[in-house]
Amino acid sequence: MAFAGRRNRKDPLNPVLEEYGETGMIPVSGSGLMRKSIILFLVVVLGTALFFSCMHNPAPFDEAKWRRQVDAQSVEQLYAPHFNDGRYFNPWAPMEHGGFWRLVKWKMSSKAHYSEEEKNHRPKFIPELKARIQGMPEGDFIAWIGHSTFLLRIGGDYWITDPIFSERAFLPRRITPPAITGEELKALAPSLNVLISHNHYDHLDEESVRSLPRASRFYVPLGLGNHVASLHEGAVQELDWWREIDLGGGNKLVCLPAQHWSRRFGQGFNETLWAGFLLITPEISVYYGADSGYFIGYREIGRRYPNIHYALLSTTAYHPRWFMHYAHKSIPEALDAFHDLGARYFIPTQWGTFPLGDEPPGYPALDLMRTIQERKLDPSRFLVLDIGEIRPLRGARE
């Protein structure tokens, strides 16, 4: 597959399936007549939206007002019941519902201008990841596979987050290739621990799950167990927010709240939970925040679990802010979340792989580096990885 040089303008259906799902109105399947029908429908809708794009210019998003709403969230609500009448929800901040026409409003809106550098920026691709890992039989590390998929080795155990190696996340096409595949992983990690944060197509990819090593063990939020078990014979454990699992040897996995939502074909709106995870070992702790808007939970997680070494935080699909602010963080918010967590290192996730929001896929990395400079933050604490890059993990004694 040739990924290099693919551009958004060649694929008019690039608005991510997730953002169609922001409305909670369009279930989709991965192939066949249903997929073709949905694509035709979206062509008509998006074509109409583009035709009228000059007619709608929403007012600027009020960031100060939104921050006041976040600051007013109750910590107690992070522990409140979050399932009712067959659906999960975020009790600290009810989700805004605009229906399908809110999506159309987004597509009819005028777009921000991006420079050529912002449009064309990409992470570098470092090949031969499998061979390079085989050449380092010892040591803890993290490697970026692409999007929200990271491979970690800690204490000899392998972990992977939201694996997706496919060319598409249903509709959006990759602009950069994955650094490794499920087949290659079988030669590296016959026993693999898999974290799946929620059911959106760019985080739960069925073909990628099927390709994982036979002895994989899956940790998923409530409601996702049966679906994952239908794709892979490995053991599956469902977790609720704040549940801790003793993995033995001083290792612990914690399922944590996130501010997001769920939907995919065969699973209705918010019928399964969404989550982040914290992996705690005697030497290293890694927080995987998955997909989430900015919320008071980061402060509480940092309070309850001090001394986090690495925070993997999402940095994508935040333009336009009026549409994206609930479920996705802006770069300033991602930096605030990093501060709230009290983590030592920040690793940005989800950028540079799939076109999601209005911003170009590589834009978040440039935005991040500019904001770090503007805030006069220590750049050594921010690890912007290239695809296929291996970074040693430094723990409590280093």
Automatic annotation (TrEMBL):
Keyword Transmembrane helix included in the entry's annotation: yes
Domain Metallo-beta-lactamase stretches: 161-349
Keywords: Membrane, Transmembrane, Transmembrane helix
InterPro entries: Metallo-B-lactamas, RibonucZ/Hydroxyglut_hydro
Name assigned to this protein: Outer membrane protein
Transmembrane segments: 38-59
Top-level taxonomy: Bacteria, Pseudomonadati, Thermodesulfobacteriota, Syntrophobacteria, Syntrophobacterales
DNA-binding is among the record's keywords: no
Organism of provenance: Syntrophobacter fumaroxidans (strain DSM 10017 / MPOB)
GO cellular component, one term: cytoplasm
